[in-house]
Every structure is written in C-alpha cells, then in structure tokens.
Amino acid sequence: MNIQNPSRPPTSEEAWLTAAYDELTNNGVEAVKIMALAKRLGVSRTSFYWHFKDREALLEAMIQHWEDKNTGNLVARTEAYAANVSEAIFNLFDCWLDADLFDAALDLAIRNWARNDAALQLRLDQADARREAAMTAMLQRFGYSLDTALVRARTMIYTQIGYISMQIQQPEERRMARMPDYIEVFTGQRPAQVDIDRFMARHQSTETPPTAE
C-alpha cells in the first residue's frame, strides 16, 4: 500500500494513513490508536487533529480507501475489454497479482475487523455483493446463464477469500503456472495459448511462461 507520498512531511495526512494501515494489517483495528501512531511517527498527537476530526474519521478513511481500491479496481477489471471468457478472467486475475490493483492484506484486515463491527460487516457484505454482481455479469456476457454465472462467480470469490485468509505462501512461478488451470476450473474451458501468453507477458520479465512442478 502506497498511501504516503514521500514528498510530504511525516505529519501529513498520508503519513497518518500509512501508519494506521501498518497497524491495521499487522495488529488489527484495536492497535490503531492516536497516541501509538503519534509515537510511531515521532510527532505530538495534536498534529493528528489537523487532518482528522477523531479516530473514527481516520478509520473511515481507511475503509473508504479499501472500498475504492479493492472493490473499485476489481469491478473495473471485470468490465475491461476481453475477446473471450478466458481473457476476461485473466483480466480479473490481474488483481490477485498486482498490489497496486488489489491489497490482499487490507482485505483480510477488513474482514477480521468486521467480525466485531456490525456496521462494517454490512459494508463488507455490500462490497462482496458488488463484486459478485460484477463477476456474474462478466460471465453472462460470454453466454453463461444467470444461475451458472452466479455459481462460477461465487466459486472464484470464495477461492480468493480462502487463499487470502489462509495466507498461502508459494513460489510466484508455481502460482503463475497454475493460472490456466484455474481458468479451466472457473469457466469449464481451457484457455487458448495466445491468451495464456498475453497474460504471462504482462506479469513476467521473460516471454517463456513457467512450467508447473
């Protein structure tokens, strides 16, 4: 997450947001406290109030950042041009591989936070419904019935939530090599080699895609 602009001073709004993000993703929302953040930044707590009314305003800014980045970018990827369903889902997979599009650590932190915050759980449910609707519509554009598209969209969503929640660690080469297999599972179709090559090319420095171990 690159909330902070390095050209801004350590008492800037971006600095407070970055510090809050680090605490939220590493230690949970209970750790996001004004005094602790001020100590981390090496400033007095009074500088906090130049940027935020109170702690709740800071937390709201974090939630809005999550909604805009994770859900907003995911929906945008489902709406990107694609000549076929495999290319469409490869577009969506960009989110799982590009931290500038989707912040997995923040998504997990929000989900954990929402367990004890009913208002946030409602917003999380709304975000998940928006993601589901966008992915379902994407599949429908390529001929899947509503019911089939919905089940396949949910399969993708639940798989990714599980992947993030389990904090799975694996070599990037192996993960990339499995992507075409996931496309086949999610769509019922094997992606064409030209679509695989195009996807691999934008995520790798070499032209030769890795092989599975």
**SSE arrangement, N to C:** HHHHHHHHH
For this entry, what is the oligomeric state of its chains?
A: single chain
Number of helices: 9
Contiguous runs where pLDDT drops below 50 for at least 5 residues: 206-213
**Beginning-to-end CA distance, first to last residue:** 31 Å
Q: How much is the radius of gyration in Å?
A: 19 Å
Number of strands: 0
Strand content: under 5%
Instruction: Give the helix/strand class.
Output: mainly alpha
Task: Please give the largest β-sheet.
Answer: none
The helical percent reads: 55-70%
Mean pLDDT: 91
What is the global morphology?
A: elongated
Task: Summarize it.
With about 210 residues, this protein is an all-alpha fold. The protein has helices spanning about 15-25, 35-40, 55-80, 85-95, 105-115, 120-140, 145-165, 170-185, 195-205. The chain is elongated and about 60 Å long.
